[in-house]
Amino acid sequence: MTQALPWHEKQWQRVEAMRANARMPHALMLRGARGLGKGEFASRLAFVMLCEGKEKPCGACRGCRLMASGNHPDFLAVIPEEGKQTIGIDQIRALIDHIWLTTQYGGYKVVVLNPAEAMTRGAANTLLKTLEEPPGIAVFILVSHQSGRLPATIRSRCQMLDFPLPAASQALPWLASRLPPKTPAETLLRLADGAPFSALEIAEAGGAEARSALFDDLASLVAESADPVAVAYGWRGMEVPEVGRWMTTFTMDLIRLKTDENSARLTHADLRQAMQPLARRLDLLGLFALLDVCLEFRWLCARQTSFNAQLLLEDVAIRWSAAGGW
User: Fold this and answer.
1) CATH class for domain 6-164?
2) pLDDT tens sequence across 120-165
3) Which residues contact 283 (CB under 8 A, 6 or more apart)?
4) 131 to each of 29, 101, 196, 320, how far by Cα in Å?
5) 3-class secondary-structure state, position 322
6) Which CATH number fits domain 205-323: 3.40.190.10, 1.20.272.10, 2.60.120.10, 3.40.50.2300?
7) 185-204 pLDDT, tens per residue?
């Protein structure tokens, strides 16, 4: 059973008010950026809904024990199947069959869909009728990182529970307690755009070290002391979207330093001294041109289902190499 996160207090207060007034919606959508712990909130809420004790979740009753073992007959978690990125029609049909079965213990039936936007169009359409008129006291908990990608017909059938980015005063102590000593938690949180779980993922995947290596590569490209194709080949082990995100934030920091060497609004504040000489060398208009390149790179990564990643990386490396002569 997951612990309540410090930045979820208001969301829990709202859910508890719904439950106390017997106004729990049949479909609740948890929406917000990735990495805010919405999946953990959904899991804990499922424990609460299926707990048979007085204090919920008690962790000791039959319902809590079955949930902890992953064997509660009145709970179903629906995620993309292994090796796939979507939730298909067959999974939703199985969900519907499950939800129409008689509840085993006379309480709620709880379904968690995570992420909801992973449903194919056909799967979403198949779910509509059941989502609008679920049998008995069924509760659907939809976790969404990009709710705008869901059909309006799905969104309109859900009550929204929003998850904004937490304050650093709440996120940093939680993050620091889960990192090795002397790990720059504040820098990781900035790299993750303020999302604590994303920051933890970056740390666990060695992302901070990869980011520093990427900056060294960009500096070498601008100094024209490295072969762009060879550098791009060295990036093949990195996650392509991460390369795009870090390049974009590096470029934005360089623009800030170009206009104000003492700027306090740096994403990569720990690399300030290394970035300052690079900012002085690059032309401001050239930096904005590089920003356009980086944003286009990120757009391609986000929108294209298939592309030649290596060619894309080589093109970006060549653009950075050419920036030194602008």
Assistant:
1) alpha beta
2) 999 999 999 999 888 888 999 999 999 999 999 999 999 999 999 9
3) 326
4) 12, 15, 31, 50
5) helix
6) 1.20.272.10
7) 888 898 888 999 999 998 88
